[in-house]
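Worked example 2:
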Amino acid sequence: MVNHSAVGLDATFAALADPTRRAILTRLGTREASVTELARPFQVSLPAISKHLGVLERAGLIQRRRLGRIRRCRLVAHPMRHAAAWLGRYRRFWEHQFNHLDAYLDETTDSQEEPAWLPHPKQPPSPSDSRAPSRRRQRRSSGPGRTRKH
């Protein structure tokens, strides 16, 4: 059985995944506009804008209507309310997690001990430390190497 709510959410998030479509929705959030007006700020063709509008319309995020030769578009906010409600559940989850973290941090900072995750003060490197400057190696032989016979 198809979960229509999930299908609607999928279509909404797929439509919102594109920055051009999000910009179109932002413009429609202020007022209704024609397809030509919506296409004006973008560096894409009118047919490309029409395809974007088709995706938004299939997702139920906009409605298009014809007034003579002009096609007007307007925002439909209902599908975004469903998406916001779905995201809200995760927001509550993370707020709960952060509240627990905040309580834990308050608890640990009340004690006088220095937390283990704080870096320790820097100490000068010891000679066995890999960051210490290396000593110069001693030469193995003191004399010149072999010579070749010609």
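The mean pLDDT is 82. The two ends are 92 Å apart (CA to CA).
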